[in-house]
Amino acid sequence: MKNNLLSILIFLCCAITTQLLSQRVLAQTASASMTLEQLKAVKAIKVANLDKDTYFKSGGFILDRYEERPAYVFTYSDGITRKIYLYKVFTAEDTKELGLLAIYKNEKSGEIKPFVIPGASADRKAWDAYIDDLKYVGEKEPGLMSTLTFVLSREMAGLLSGGGGKSEDGGGKKKEEYNFCFAPDAPVTLADGSAKSINALNAGDVVLGYDATTKSLAPTRVTKVDTHEGNFTLAGVWLTPISELTADNRNALTAPVLLEATANHPVLTASGRKALGDVKAGEVLYRYDAAANSVSAYHVVRAEKAIRAVKNVYNLVTESGAYLVGETIVLDK
């Protein structure tokens, strides 16, 4: 009897906290009403690496790690480590927030349970589906309900105290922060080494890609071209070959080349994936060497947060996950 009452209390606490959390989170950003079909689609999304995949697009949705939180980790007296990962869910088309995705993982069994938490304005059927998951899925996995309740309660407490990652202007991330893009005239390197403006490319075109595992260049197919309209500021870095910085027999140095994109667009650096706006002078990026048909290391000699403003921006999604803009390796979102 006591166990049943405890389960009911945990269930009610989780449901109430979820409703309050969704109201507070969605009040900070432009939101949309989640439908039952959308809830099912989000629930079916498979995250390849929960610890590394903090932002990605899938099936018309954007998943973004909630306030950039690492996983909540719990180790109970049974010796089993349990984790909860939280993601904000947005529509990819207009970046309106739909709700939250909470993913439970049992480190011993490998069991993974997703819970899609609708926004406060969601369709009633979506909320019914979430409550059913709490009841019929959550209660079958020992430790799941208590960990999920703790995480949602903790986040709710942070929001009530004025924290929770609230930005200086009183809201969450702005719409443009989810648009990782280049100017219309950004030159994309094609498979034959020539270049074409990014706004002239279409899904199905073949460009020169890069495989980070083999560190080799190879043709890759464009699977999607993202286009966004608005006012966007481009950041930029100027690059110079490392060989020129160390050579002592040159009479003149090559003028630095400029790579520009929205500040959040990821590029490949010597230390791994990094947003262009976070790249600093002295860091190393990689560019295409046509003569050797390989990549060469380039030093960043200068970095600026704002180079120019453009109204339309573009991004490619490729099969390899990396392509070349201005002959410099950039990464998919």
Automatic annotation (TrEMBL):
InterPro entries assigned: Hint_dom_N, Hint_dom_sf, Intein_N
Source species, domain of life: Bacteria
Keywords: Signal
Alphabetized SMART domains for the sequence: HintN
Family matches, as PROSITE patterns: INTEIN_N_TER
Signal peptide residue numbers: 1-27
Chain ranges of the Hint domain: 179-289
Protein name in the entry: Hint domain-containing protein
Organism: Spirosoma liriopis
